[in-house]
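Hi everyone,

Forwarding the result from last night's run.
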Amino acid sequence: MSATRSIETTVTTPGLQTLNGDVSINSASDLEEFRELGGTAFKLFGSLTIRNTELTDLTALSGLEEIEGGNLRIQGNSSLVSLQGLEKVRQVNELQIISNNALQSLEGLTGLRQVTFDTQITGNRTMQSLRGLDSLQRSGRLVISSNAELADLQGLERLRIVGGWPSYAYEDLIIRHNASLRDLRGLESLTHVDGILQISSNATLENLAGLEQLEYVQLTLQIEKNPELTNLDGLANLRQFPGQATLGYDRGSLIIAENPSLTSVRGLAGLNDINTTLTIQDNGALESLEGLGGITVASLTVSGNDTLTSLFGLGLSWMGPSLISNNASLETLIGLDSVDTARELTIERNPVLTSLVGLGQLQEVRQNLTIRENEALLNLDSLTSRTEAGGSLLIRDNEALDEVSIEHLLLQIGRATPPTDNDSTDDSDSSATGGDTSTLPTRTQLLPAFPNPSNSSMSVAYDLAEGSEGRLQLYSVSGQLVRNLVSSEQPAGYHVVTWDGRSDDGVPAAAGVYLIRFRAEQTLQTGKLMLLR
């Protein structure tokens, strides 16, 4: 580095000198030119990077008053115990504090009020406090990750908004892999997150205390893999959860997954008249869905919740593509009583489900209706003559279900071909699909993927009005082909294909936005998928 050769006296601010261009400090000797300034105030036009040094503090930079149009990166400094020397810096484009394994707090950043784009506090093994960020009021994106000794978020008490910059695509608050984090105290002033709020893989997180003032999440609320989390009570003030169209989504997503100690979602009771994609998955202790009554329209996934006995608490009136599966104690579908329309519905592998009570108001399944491998299901009585299935009807491998009940359903809804292979004594063919061509789609089109966003796999659906060669390909935003999902002659009808989150080579795809391109007949459409990790 040759800092002094770039220093010149500014005309507009007497006594304040300027340093033009990016500065990298990689050793103690790189600071000598700053020490020679003797504390003289200076301004940096560019970015400051301090990386892989044996420095213990940054007092040689005490004259730094501004970083104009650049970033502050402090990474891999194994002996750094203090950020003192940076107290006068008020604003940066990006702040990165990464893998500084002796750093216990952020004291020294007390003047920082705004990070325009990205704040990352990641992989600092001994960091115990975020004290030092006490003046920070806004950050475009905030990631707090893999800080093994961080017990709370105190130091962020003035942070009000994550996001708020129209030109910035990523406006997320991500809190993950902090092994000692017990609650979210420190976020008491936070009211808005303009992108994704992800709280995941925090091994000792017991509650969400600290989020009591949060009113608004713009895109996705993702709470997963927190083994000690018992409730969501800290979200009681959350009211608005609208999703957004900027990245191509019709609605936001609510994902509550793999929280084995979670018994209640009542903390979400403040939500009202919400349209979203709702995933409740692999929460082994969850006893009830009470608290979700404000979600009225959703693509619904309820899967792998071992102690859930019903769906009571839901307030849905319309469902998108929906899956109810692998719930070991689910006895009834009570909770879906207000649903009159579903785009697609699959009910499978719920071993103690005895009836479809709860679906009595269901009048239309616009595409496929699948009921399979529910070994205790006795009858289909809740589906009546008002229930229409616009696509295929599959009733299969429900061992206790007798053929009379199935035939009665088929007569009620006007299907001619009875499905079999439900009663365990019958070994004949097991599926039934509507053969009436009036149920075929009238137009060729790409349909919304579900769930979208997703942290694992997602299904991409499309309609073909006529048989033709169909192509469905997945690209990165840079235009690189990631996965060729479909490339073959396809019959007319509704089709769905699952993307498992991997490339054609079987490599897990990175988190981010992907483009899905659909081509058939004269139709060419592009949609967007978001993969979360």
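Confidence is low (pLDDT under 50) at residues 1-12, 244-250, 415-420, 424-438.

Cheers,
N.
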